Amino acid sequence: MEKVTIATVARRAGVSRQTVSNVINTPDVVREETRERVREAITALGYRVNQAARQMRTGRSRLIAVRIEPARDGINGSVLDRFLHGLTDAAGLAGYRVMLYTAADDNDEIATYDDLLSAYDLDAFVLTSTHHGDPRTSWLAERSVPFVTFGRPWGAPDMHSWVDVDNAAGTAAATEHLLAAGHQRIGFLGWPAGSGVGDARREGWHRVLGPWGPSAASTDGVQGGAEAARALLATDEPPTALVCASDSLALGALQAARELGRECAVVGFDDTAVAQAIGLTSVSQPLAEAAARCMDLLAELLDGRAPSVPATVLLPPSLVLRQTA
Q1: How far apart are CA 196 and CA 202, in angstroms?
Q2: Under CATH, which architecture does the 6-164+288-314 domain have?
Q3: Rounded CA gap, 269 and 288, in Å?
Q4: What pLDDT, in 10s, does the model give residues 243-293?
Q5: What is the pLDDT of residue 57?
Q6: Whole-prediction pTM value?
Q7: Which segments of the chain belong to CATH 3.40.50.2300?
Q8: 3-state DSSP call for residue 171?
Q9: CA dist., res. 105 & res. 205, Å (int)
Q10: How far apart are CA 126 and CA 146, in angstroms?
Q11: Which fold has domain 167-284?
Q12: For the segment 188-197, what is each residue's pLDDT rounded down to a tens digit?
């Protein structure tokens, strides 16, 4: 079989060899349409960058690390699995490899950073699940370790580059859809206050709804969602629709409505495989795009091409309509 080279990829994509090299090494200088065409050719041909030669040339390992999130209830935990899949694909196209690690909490994760940096020649980290008062970013920044985050620095200045999904826009779109369908009493089922993501999802609902709007908070999970929804649906003026901060809470809301014999439209968030299987209307995050943008920002940072002001990318989600709403 003929060896696949940059020239082979260039012929397949109908571009120059320099353009292929730019897509691999400096993707931001290539138009998005051309970049996608080259990446498709790379994938179709199975082209692999010569990592040994590149490491000798750049002095870098081309290795980045990211945490595996805990499985939790097996529903919403799959969301970041999809992000990791997209990040691994994007990293491979850029000539990087991804190392995975686990951590129980922030302190455990910081200790893991220390261990990994001592044992491996890591180039950078990608952080997920950012939150208020997140100590991980300051630890890495103080040691000049390159990183980007999937998730904004909630409540803190934009001191590092990040990619996030516009959570408020997602729940706003869900609420607008329910209003257009004739619902006037639309409740919200979310997480306890203080979660950056959860508060943003509640804000999108509240922004659209106006004066009427009962809400309830629960830790994430089907059982918690069922209990919180049961309390809302048992009121004198029960909601006829519920916007939920996660698919797990939405499944609990459906269970509660069925047990009480109530007609109630339900919208979840994250468009998990379970939502697809049972016909749950849900807000979908562009996880593959988010992962690719994280990798682009990281490549800029590692190549010394990052802007003087940290880059921030906020991606719009989409509402996937199914039987429940």
Answers
A1: 10
A2: 3-Layer(aba) Sandwich (3.40)
A3: 17
A4: 999 999 999 999 999 999 999 999 999 999 999 999 999 999 999 999 999
A5: 45
A6: 0.79
A7: 6-164+288-314, 167-284
A8: helix
A9: 30
A10: 9
A11: Rossmann fold (3.40.50)
A12: 999 998 889 9
